[in-house]
Automatic annotation (TrEMBL):
It comes from the Eukaryota. It catalyses: ATP + H2O = ADP + phosphate + H(+). The keyword Nucleotide-binding applies. PANTHER family: ATP-DEPENDENT RNA HELICASE, PRE-MRNA-SPLICING FACTOR ATP-DEPENDENT RNA HELICASE DEAH4-RELATED. This is RNA helicase. GO terms for biological process: mRNA processing. Residues 205-379 form the Helicase C-terminal domain. It comes from Symbiochloris irregularis. One of its GO terms (molecular function) is RNA binding. It is an enzyme of class 3 (hydrolase).
Length: 503
């Protein structure tokens, strides 16, 4: 633990955080910022008046990091170290370090706008600029100045614009901690490839498996369909190789957000002796997660990003080039536990000239309805059009969100939150569910078992490995008129109608 770069400057970290309400820490990938900074602050006595909350952009990261830190603290998860994600939490009154998703911290703001049970909040992987993290920037920037009980905010990342963040947080100090744990050798294509990136990635993974020394391989692709195709092709190629006897055994492991948690956990299980793991993942493996044994990274240079068109009201997932920040993060996966190699399936010119320097913040390219709804629900009288955003979205996008929320009955004509709006903010599902779910909630004569509720189920319309009977049950419930008492669904009430009886 003492060998980690963050541990070597722990006194500087403690003194800076204690002296300032907001601190930005820039530490290279593998330096130990995610696991060690909360422990350093805990050991310095900064959790005496409240706990330490550490946000993560993804659920699998929050769970895996909590387990790792609990192991280092020699305690069970849920005691001194815990986690909280949607539909699952392992924490208790003894918990001093809590890893949670940024969405969970947003929901805590709805219950306790002062976040009074926390003395320190760490916003980790801030460079990802998720929608929830950007909203938390503005909320916490105000809270650290106005809360009577002192609150310290620590913003951490391996790659972010320190000057920009310092300026936004009123000139806060920026600590730069150099030194990756292990060196990573970078390789680029000499010229642009004519093959599709999926085939290039499969071929490179097979080449590494056959001719490189021992060490696990991590391949980055864009989504579930591509990953399943790549897993099938790699498995088939290894099984059908003529030199199969000379080919070492391999375990092919997929990793993406929609994968059930018990299958995601396979990525943390060590490979048997003499066997190599080939992990095919989306950008869920880009940050926070330390997969022991990964030595080789295959970076395709692309990612699926969500984009929202306010004219059609539709969100789309499009394959686009990653940013330089993401490329650095991906290469860092190879140097977490030993020296590694990163093979970038794009040219150096692509990296230097075509890749954007930073990832476009999600708040600038997605629907703002959920974010505006949460801001309106906070007891802070927030003016969403003039909220203190780090990167303000277009006014038209904010007005579009306000208009949709008014049509759904979540806001009054004056923009105030309605009782229905408060109920909608508490329901853990996308706003696209609220119209059909209003019908479900309006069935005063109906009482569906909890396991039928959409908020407790995986996406029924995605291709996946979940139980097919559940997906079939969803189809029956939503398509059969017999599901409704009397043979037809009830009429959706006018948005201005009273909400009495909806439960």
């Amino acid at each position: 633990m003492a060998a980690l770069p963050v541990r070597e400057v722990q006194d500087l970290i403690v003194s800076t955080v204690k002296a300032n309400r907001v601190t930005v820490v820039m530490a290279e990938t593998g330096s130990g910022k995610t696991t060690q900074i909360p422990q350093i602050l805990l050991e310095a006595g900064m959790a005496e008046s409240g706990g330490i909350a550490v946000t993560q952009p993804r659920r699998v990261a929050a769970v895996s990091v909590a387990r790792r830190v609990a192991e280092e603290r020699r305690c069970s998860v849920g005691q001194e170290v815990g986690f909280a994600i949607r539909f699952e939490q392992r924490c208790s009154s003894e918990t001093r370090i809590l890893y949670l998703t940024d969405g969970m911290l947003m929901r805590e703001c709805l219950v306790d706008d002062q976040l009074s049970k926390y003395a320190v909040i760490v916003l980790d992987e801030a460079h990802e600029r998720t929608l929830n993290t950007d909203i938390l920037f503005g909320v916490l920037k105000s809270l650290v100045q106005t809360r009577e009980q002192p609150l310290h905010l620590v913003v951490t990342s391996a790659t972010l614009d320190g000057d920009k963040f310092s300026s936004y947080f009123r000139g806060c100090p920026v600590l730069t901690i150099p030194g990756r744990c292990f060196p990573v050798q970078l390789s680029h294509l000499l010229e642009a490839a004519e093959q599709p990136y999926l085939q290039l990635a499969v071929d490179k993974a097979l080449d590494l498996h056959l001719y490189e020394e021992a060490g696990d391989i991590l391949v980055f692709l864009t989504g579930q369909a591509e990953i399943e195709q790549a897993v099938a092709e790699i498995t088939s190629e290894i099984a059908n190789m003529p030199e199969h006897d000379a080919c070492p055994p391999a375990i092919i492991i997929p990793l993406y957000a929609a994968l059930p948690p018990e299958q995601q956990a396979r990525v943390f299980e060590p490979a048997p002796d003499g066997c190599r793991r080939i992990i095919v993942a989306t950008n869920v493996a880009e940050t926070s997660i330390t997969v022991d044994g990964v030595v080789y990274v295959v970076d395709t240079g692309v990612v699926k990003q969500k984009a929202y068109d306010p004219h059609t009201g539709m969100e789309t997932l499009t394959v686009t080039s990653i940013s330089k920040v993401q490329a650095i993060q991906r290469s860092g996966r190879a140097g977490r536990t030993r020296p590694g190699k990163c093979f970038r399936l794009y040219t150096r010119a692509d990296y230097d000239q075509r890749m954007p320097a930073e990832t476009v913040p999600e708040i600038l390219r997605t629907s703002l309805q959920a974010a505006v709804l949460h801001l309106k629900t906070l007891p802070l009288q927030v003016d969403v059009l003039h909220f203190d955003y780090m990167d303000a979205p277009k006014r038209g996008a904010l007005e579009d969100a306000l208009r949709h929320l008014y049509l759904l009955g979540a806001l009054t004509r004056e923009g105030a939150i309605t009782p229905l709006g408060r109920l909608m903010a508490q329901l853990p599902w996308s706003l696209c569910w609220h119209a059909p779910c209003w019908l479900l909630l309006s069935w005063t004569a109906w009482a569906l078992p909890s396991q039928w509720w959409p908020c407790s189920q995986p996406n029924p319309f995605s291709r996946g490995t979940e139980d097919p009977s559940r997906r079939k049950a969803w189809v029956i419930m939503f398509s059969s008129s017999a599901s409704f008492r009397g043979g037809r669904p009830p009429t959706m009430p006018h948005p201005g109608a009273p909400t009495r009886g909806c439960l």
